[in-house]
Write a structure and sequence with these properties.
Radius of gyration of chain A: 19 Å
Largest interface: A-B, 70 and 70 residues
Number of domains of chain A: 2
CATH architecture of the largest domain in chain A: 3-Layer(aba) Sandwich
Structural class of chain A: alpha/beta
CATH class of the largest domain in chain A: Alpha Beta
Strand content of chain B: under 5%
CATH superfamily of the largest domain in chain B: Alpha-helical ferredoxin
CATH class of the largest domain in chain B: Mainly Alpha
Helix content of chain B: 40-55%
CATH topology of the largest domain in chain B: Fumarate Reductase Iron-sulfur Protein, Chain B, domain 2
Order of helices and strands of chain B: HHHHHHHHH
Oligomer: heterodimer
Helix content of chain A: 40-55%
Distance between the termini of chain A: 40 Å
CATH architecture of the largest domain in chain B: Orthogonal Bundle
Number of helices of chain B: 9
Number of strands of chain B: 0
Number of domains of chain B: 2
Order of helices and strands of chain A: EHHEHHEHHEHEHHEHHEHEHH
Largest sheet of chain A: 4 strands, parallel
Shape of chain A: globular
Strand order of the largest sheet of chain A: 2-1-3-4
Shape of chain B: elongated
Chain lengths: 296, 175
């Protein structure tokens, strides 16, 4: 296991800074050797940029990977989209005949060269593979007695031939990491369904993307869970901000708290909600914290 | 010219095999029944694959942009056709013909200008400082020489030209 460099992406630092802070606090508390990938850009996002021009997508992704190669650290992502782009780009550079040379022609113009000698990790698979639920359990200071709907998102686990994390129909690894915190991951219909945001659908066809989100939220609501936990800030935005948009456009109210796994982990590791970017000015979040005996 | 050739070359490895893959489709419909978008939109991925296998008259099809790239169809395809990868190829050809949704063009302009599809705003600068974090994250938003590198690369790859020209969007009536 190499030391890690944390790749932030766009949505976490620029829309959900609390997830950035929660991640850093958790990594430090778990004694994980990491720094920040200074000077990184957008991954670039797989939905739009990969759709438009594969070479541009690969080249900008490769620059981000080079920054990590220069430090001899593996990249740690906290977003399924960033994971998709950087893990795929890294694999293509390593495996596809001639592509590394083609991309290096562009990188040479900024005095960089990609070698293909590091790995790209996602925090969920990293914690599961390198720590495992039992070791995570040993760090827990506060048992979270709540019912959780786990949302894996698509690109953490698919395409399965490239991710290598097992079958996508009924995976368990994320659920086990949630259960390790004292919480209960509750099965629900269409658990593996997409949040609706990916592929550029949210940006260009928001109403259509929200129909998919609404269907998923309806399934979750039936299970009487306390919160949704995800592994991706884009799913997070769609499931969280999406609730307000659904209320406005469809007049359906859900009021389900949504947490990134690092925020849930942060609570279990003993950090107060306000240090984890959990907005307790919202009634739904305040009630969740009361349930956890965290509200003053 | 050289850059254009490189771009073509990097694209062609996958595209050639995808063209053959699509002809193996037996129109069983597992893809469509697995599609979360198709339950709620007019996207019929089985039909798209059929059209793509028989004609090139697909690039202005609005359904191309309703796919969330969740990969369910690709995972469950009994003939192992890389449906999403093929769809991304078709989207790229459409984009290179100038058929780009205005909202997507805007996202691309953000990358060209800020190095981020979603750059920081005033509200989140404040949230960061209120949380005791630095106002700007450790990205190209703080490191301007890094931003210049990203811009240089996007010029080198022809992305600036692709997005910059005004060849128009999806034709009226198709939107």
């Amino acid at each position: 296991m190499k030391a890690l460099t944390l790749f932030m992406g766009c949505l976490v630092p620029n829309r959900y800074p609390g997830i950035e802070l929660a991640t850093k606090l958790c990594l430090a508390k778990l004694d994980i050797d990491f720094n920040e990938l200074a000077g990184a850009s957008c991954c670039p996002a797989p939905g739009v940029f990969r759709s438009f021009d594969r070479t541009s997508w690969l080249t900008v992704a490769s620059r981000n990977i080079v920054l990590a190669e220069q430090m001899e650290r593996d990249i740690l992502t906290i977003c399924n989209g960033c994971f998709s782009t950087l893990a795929d780009a890294n694999r293509i550079i390593k495996e596809e005949n001639g592509t590394k040379e083609d991309i290096n022609e562009h990188l040479r113009k900024i005095g960089k060269e990609i070698n293909g000698n590091i790995d790209v990790r996602h925090i969920i698979e990293f914690l599961y593979e390198e720590y495992g639920p039992e070791k995570i359990r040993s760090y827990v200071e506060r048992q979270l007695k709540i019912r959780v709907a786990v949302h894996y998102g698509c690109h953490l686990i698919k395409p399965t031939k490239d991710r290598g994390l097992g079958n996508f129909e009924r995976p368990r690894f994320f659920d086990e990491l949630v259960n390790a915190l004292g919480a209960t991951s509750v099965e629900y219909p269409d658990k593996m369904a997409c949040c609706g945001a990916g592929g550029g659908v949210r940006s260009a066809m928001k109403d259509k993307s929200l129909k998919m989100t609404e269907a998923k939220l309806a399934r979750i609501k039936e299970m009487e869970i306390d919160c949704i936990v995800n592994s991706c800030p884009f799913c997070h935005m769609q499931l969280d901000a999406g609730q307000a948009e659904i209320k406005e456009k469809m007049e359906i109210e859900y009021d389900i708290p949504v947490l990134h796994y690092t925020q849930l982990l942060g609570l279990a590791l003993g950090f107060p909600p306000e240090m984890l970017g959990i907005d307790t000015s919202l009634k739904k979040n305040r009630e969740l914290m009361e349930q956890l005996d965290l509200q003053e | 010219m050289k850059d254009g050739n490189t771009a073509q070359k990097a694209k062609s490895h996958e595209t050639d095999s995808h063209n053959k893959d699509i002809l193996r489709c037996m129109q069983c419909g597992v893809c469509t029944s697995s599609c979360p978008s198709g339950r709620h939109t007019s996207l019929n991925i089985r039909k798209l694959v059929k059209i793509a296998g028989r004609t090139t008259n697909i690039f202005s099809n609005e359904e191309l942009w309703m796919c969330t790239t969740c990969y369910n169809c690709q995972e469950r395809c009994p003939r192992n056709i890389p449906i999403v990868d093929i769809l991304l190829d078709i989207r790229a050809t459409a984009a290179h013909q100038g058929m780009i949704q205005p909202e997507h063009r805007q996202v691309c302009r953000m990358l060209l200008e800020y190095g981020h599809a979603v750059p920081i705003n005033e509200e989140n600068r404040k949230i960061r400082t209120d949380l005791g974090m630095e106002e700007l994250p450790e990205t190209v938003q703080k490191y301007k020489e890094g931003l210049e590198e990203v811009k240089e690369l996007l010029r080198s790859c022809g992305f600036e030209t692709l997005i910059g020209d005004n060849k128009g969007c999806i034709p009226e009536g198709k939107k």
